[in-house]
Amino acid sequence: MTRNRLLRPCLTTLALLVGLIGLPAGAPAASGDDPELPPAVQALTTKGLQVVERFEAPGGLTGFTARAGGREVVVYATPDGEHVLLGTLLDERGNNLTKKHLAEHMPSRGMGEAWARLEEAQWIATGAKDPERVVYMFTDPFCPYCHAIWKASRPYYEEGLQIRHVLVGVIRPNSKAKAAAMLQADDPAAAFRAHQQAYGDGGGKQVSGEASDPALATVEANNRLMRDLGIGGTPAVIYKNGDGEVKLANGMPKLSKLADIYRLPEKTVDDPSLDRFR
To answer: CA Rg, the chain, in Å?
Structure first.
């Protein structure tokens, strides 16, 4: 009889599970009204857990693949349905069963739907007015790596690159307000450029005036879009490869990779502040 064990796992309370997987308070619940879910799992859906598939797991557990805060996770419910386990389920040989469960029970979510949704989002364009290449980027005003991509990409503007910045507020408590202030500016592109040019320890140029409710709602919508696409942080660059497939690059790429992402001739980036990305 095969015995299974949990390593780096925990039999957790609901509150601890919410903290571990970073469920966003108030996020839409996909399955919160599903009476078939065990009580502990159903409670999590009201906090934003989106259940994808149910399956029978070893040891009398019931497994649920789910999405939470941009992450794909497996939650295991105990037979009484009153407790959930979050962690890596291993068998007696140390095989990672959780990884196997994700592969078998979590449908791959391509980025194909992303492009159309990004086109409909509100964004700020930088670069070429008549672009040869377009990429989208989720950008937080206080994200230092977003700023690094902004600097590294500028030489590509003359080759026809346009970056459409989908502004989000996820890093600092005032990220949303700063993003909203740029979106509501008379010239959003100029406000964004001034912010990046003044970027430093303080996170860029201070934008005067209070953010309006419509602008804040736009940032919230961008935050939801980022979560819906399974993207957990900034920067995130969404682009099309030579075959027209939509791809995602998370984080700050090596400078040598930018030309491949943009599908443009490689440009020299002389900024010494970017040497660590060479």
So the answer is: 22
Q: Which tokens belong to 57?
A: 């797991």
Per the omega criterion (within 30 degrees of 0), is the bond before 253 cis?
no
Distances (CA, A) of 198 to 15, 45, 77, 97, 142: 41, 42, 50, 49, 12
| pLDDT top residue among 112 and 26 | 112
Residue 166, burial from CB neighbour count under 10 angstroms (0-12, 13-18, 19+): buried
Query: In terms of pTM, does the model score above 0.90?
Result: no
Confidence tier at 10 by pLDDT (50, 70, 90): very low
- Cβ(156)–Cβ(126) under 8 Å? no
User: What 8-state DSSP symbol labels residue 139?
Assistant: E
User: Which residue in this structure is represented by tokens 């990305």?
Assistant: 277
Q: Name the band, by pLDDT with cuts 50, 70 and 90, for residue 47.
A: confident
pLDDT digits (tens, 9 = 90+) for 198-208: 987 566 666 65
Tokens representing residue 41 in the block? 């799992």
Do residues 133 and 263 lie in contact, with contact meaning Cβ atoms separated by under 8 Å?
yes
CB burial of residue 238 (10 Å; 0-12, 13-18, 19+): buried
pLDDT of residue 8: 35
At which residue do the structure tokens 């992450």 appear? 71
254: exposed, middle or buried (Cβ count in 10 Å: 0-12, 13-18, 19+): exposed
Question: Across the chain, how many H-helices and E-strands are there?
Answer: 9, 10
* Strands, sheet with 161-167, edge to edge from the N-terminal-most edge strand: 124-127, 161-167, 133-139, 236-240, 246-250
